[in-house]
Amino acid sequence: MIPKFPHWVSRSQSKPHVMLAVALVGLAFQSEAAAQQAVAPEKVFGRQACQVCHASEAAAWEQSSHNKKAWSLLDHPKAAGFAKAMGVTDIKGDSLCTQCHGTQQKKAGKLVVFEGNSCESCHGGAGGAGGWLFKHFDFGTGRRPTNSSKIDEFLADRAKETPEHRAARDASVKATGMNRSADAFELASNCLQCHLVPNEKLVEAGHPMSTRFEFVEWAQGEVRHNFLLNAKVNAEVPTNWSDRNPGGTVEGRKRLMFVAGQLADLEVSLRSRAKATETKRGSLGDEANDRILDLKEELADHNLDALKPVLAAVEAVDKNSLKEVTAGDMSTYTKAADAVAAAAKRFVAAHLDGGGLPDSIDIPGKAKGNVFKP
User: Fold this and answer.
1) DSSP per-residue string spanning 165-231
2) Can you give the pLDDT at residue 167?
3) Which H helix or E strand runs over 258?
4) Whole-angstrom Cα distance, residue 254 to residue 361?
5) Which end of the chain is less packed: N or C, by CB atoms within 10 Å?
6) pLDDT for 184-195, tens place per residue?
7) Whole-prediction pTM value?
8) Degrees, nearest 5: CA angle 312-314-316
């Protein structure tokens, strides 16, 4: 039995000041298409299941200002204007707004909206048919969580897991949509589903396209919650990564995260440009153009042979081609984005331990917010 978690409340149960859900974003909206949501509502199991084993992680999220801002931004004076422009009548209900500022869960065919974001906003929907929730802690012993479960019990099982079972488990949770903390590119891509607004009409209404998201800076601050192997120590990098990469270094991991974040940003920006209908100053197309050109230059500056396939995918994309909107843009930029994503995944897989990345990759030294200490 999974115990209930009373703090994760729907808007119908909550008071305006109750802000206890785990957050992913600050200023961010998502597109109207449900297929483009960061998390499909029917896949959302609920945060109460996660806290059974991950109490320290939940506490870190719960106390962060990052968490508290996501939902409260819907009360900002400008939010009403954005909602009006988008034809949204219930900003905290079944709307594109709550796709990123809240958590949408579909139960028995009915949509329920919870304040703020949940664990699954970042790590992917765990429930639904064939979800990853019960797969990710299946270490081959048959143990299931109960009201009295302790993570130490599962960690003991984890230590005994065979390499073959571990490989099969990894493949299974990946196939069912889990974004693990060790998966730098997938996590960064998921973050950017909300941190880069892909909706042209919303940007036209004045909503910022970008939250100035940089993966390392944000992951190292108040949202950091690396407690898997030690619930009392918030490690600099995910411990399920360091445990599997004993030769890896904190600096190497951060370099990998930095480049993975740039690659994810380039992919998402290309997809935004593919849908753009104009490139006038301040439009989504214009913002995407600037990001594409900047990222292309930044990635080239790393001078890495392993990034050549990425640069080749956007070789024909320049200031002149980006400036003009043509009928073939959807195909052109989607094809480039697909190529970037494929090359990015190969790059990250080849540098999973963070090794081989030069010191010249200038990782951010600051973090966004204060790191949680239990």
Assistant:
1) HHHHHHHHHHHTT---TT-HHHHHHHHHHHHB---HHHHHTT--SB----HHHHHTTTT----TT-T
2) 96
3) helix 250-275
4) 10
5) N
6) 999 999 999 999
7) 0.88
8) 95
Helix (H) or strand (E) holding 102: strand 102-107
> What's the confidence (pLDDT) of residue 316?
87
Sign of CA dihedral 301, 304, 308, 310: negative
Cβ atoms of residues 231 and 368 within 8 Å: no
Residue 269, CB-side half-sphere exposure with 13 Å CA sphere: 24
pLDDT less than 70: residues of the chain: 1-38
Q: Half-sphere exposure of residue 311, counting CA atoms within 13 Å on the CB side?
A: 14
| Cβ atoms 209, 194 nearer than 8 A | no
For residue 38, what pLDDT is reported?
Answer: 67
Give the whole-angstrom CA distance, residue 264 versus residue 295.
10
pLDDT at 100: 92
| Cβ contacts of 89-96, under 8 Å, gap ≥ 24 | 92/11, 93/11, 96/29, 96/30, 96/31, 96/32, 96/199, 96/202
CA-closest candidate to residue 351, choices 303, 313, 311, 304? 304
Q: What is the dihedral of CA 66, 68, 72, 76, to 10 degrees?
A: -40
| SS3 (DSSP) at 222 | coil
Helix, strand, or coil here: 65?
Answer: helix
56 token code pair: 């320290």
Q: Report the 10 Å Cβ neighbour count for 148.
A: 8
Distance CA 146, CA 256 (A): 37
* Residue 352: both structure tokens together: 């999973």
pLDDT at 8: 40
Q: What local confidence, expressed as pLDDT, does residue 7 receive?
A: 38
Phi/psi at 82 (5° precision): -65, -45
Distance CA 288, CA 279 (A): 9
- What tokens were used for 132? 């990853």
Q: For 352-361, give one letter per residue: b (16+ CB within 10 A) or e.
A: bbbeebeeeb
Q: Which amino acid is at 223?
A: V
- CA nearest neighbour of 284 among 326, 322, 235: 322
Q: Which residues, listed in sequence order, are joined to residue 306 by a DSSP beta bridge?
A: none
Contact 83, 97 (CB under 8 A): yes
* Neighbouring-strand partners of residue 110: 107
